[in-house]
Amino acid sequence: MSDGHGPSPETPPGWSAAQPPPYSAPPASPWTAPGAPEQAPYGQPYGQTPQQQPYGPGPQTPHPPYPQPGHGYLPPPALRPGIIPLRPLGLGDMLDGTIKLIRSNPKAVLGLSAVAALLASVPVAVGQAFVLDEMGTALTDPERVQSGELTTMGGLAAQYGGALISYAVQFVVVTLLTGVLTRILGRAVFGGNLSAGEAWQLVKARVPALFGVVGLMVLVMGVPLAAFVVIGVALAASGAGVGTMLGVIVLFLVLYVAYYLFFRTRFAFASPAVVLEGRGPIDAMRRSWHLVTGDFWRVLGILLLTSLLVGVVAGILSVPFTIAGTLFGMLGAGSVANAVVSAVLIAVGATLGAMFTYPFEAGVAGLLYADRRMRSEAFDLVLQTAAIEQQRQGWVHASADELWHPSNSARS
C-alpha cells in the first residue's frame, strides 16, 4: 500500500479482490499516463498536466474527486466484506444475507438447526403415530369401538403429552440455537466463519440471560390467556348462552392476535441484544423496544413476510413426509412396524421444515437488528471503518465481535 488509496497487497479471507475499498479511487483508474514525465495529482483527469484546469476559470477550482450529483454517475458501491453490504438494508439484502449465512457456514447453521428440530419434533411424531394407529383401527374394526374395547383416549393423551414435551424441548433448544446462530451471524457480517463449538464458547455465558428473555416473553404473552380463562369461567358460572361464549371467544382471538404481534415485534431484538451487546434480560427487552420505536410497521411487515415465506417453504418440505406418515399410520393400524415408520416419516418431515425455519427466521431477525442500528445510530459508519481497517491491516476477525457493543455506535 503506497498512499492509502489502493487495495491491500493481500486480500484477507472473505473479501473480493475486485471489491474496491470505499472512499478511494477505483483500483484500475489510470491517474498517470504511461510514459508521462510527471504524475498528475489525485483528482485531476487523465492526460492533463497540473497546469490545465478543465473546471472553472482559475486554479482555485480543482477537479472534484468524485462526480457530483446530477452528472449522471452513481456513488461507489458500499463495502461488502461478508454477507451484507455495510449500509442500511432493504428486505432483499436481509433475505440474501440470510441465504449467504446458511451457504457460507452450512455445517454449523444447518447442522445445529437439524439437531434442534429433531429433538423438538420426535415427541410430537410419536404422539401422532399413536393417534393415527387408533384411528386406523377404528376405521377397519368399528365393532371394537362400539364394544368399548378400543378408545382414543390413550392416543389423545399420547398426542397432547408429546406436544407438551415438544414445547418444553423447543423452549430449551430453540433458545440456545438462536443465541448460537446470532453469534455466527455477527461474525459473518465481516466475512468470518465460526464453528458450532467456537460459537458455543462465545455464547454459553449469555445462556441465563437468553432464558430470562424467553421466560419474560412467556409471561407477557400468557397474561391475556390467564385473563381469558378467568372471564370464561365467570361467564360459564353466570349461565351465559352459547352465542355469548362464542362472541367472547372470537373477540378474544382478534384482540390476542393484535396483542401478540405488537409485543412480538417490540421485543424482536432482545435476543441479539443479549448475545451481541452483553445485556441482561430486562435491559435487552428495553433496548429492543427502543430500536423498534420509529419503524414499528416496517419491522412488523418484514417479520410477518419472513414467517409467511418460511412457512410456505417448510410446508413444501414437510407435507410429503407427513402425508406418507399419516397413510402408514392409518392403513397399517395394529402393526408396530407401521407405527414406527409413521412416526419416523412425520418426524423427518417436521425436522426438514424446522431445519429451514429456525435459521432463516433467526438470520432475518439478526440482520433487521443490524439494520435498525445502522438507521438509528449510524452504526454502518462503525462497521465500514472497522472493515477498512481489517482489509488494510489483516485485522483478526475475532476483534469484530466487540464492535456490536452499544458504546461503538456513532451516535451513542
TrEMBL record:
Annotated spans, Disordered: 1-78
Native species: Actinomadura luzonensis
Pfam families found in the cross-reference section: DUF7847 (PF25231)
UniProt keyword list: Membrane, Transmembrane, Transmembrane helix
Name this protein carries in UniProt: Glycerophosphoryl diester phosphodiesterase membrane domain-containing protein
Transmembrane segments: 109-131, 164-186, 207-236, 242-262, 296-319, 339-369
Keyword Transferase: no
Biased composition (Low complexity): 30-55
Domain DUF7847: 93-356
Compositionally biased region (Pro residues): 19-29, 56-78
InterPro entries noted in UniProt: DUF7847 (IPR057169)
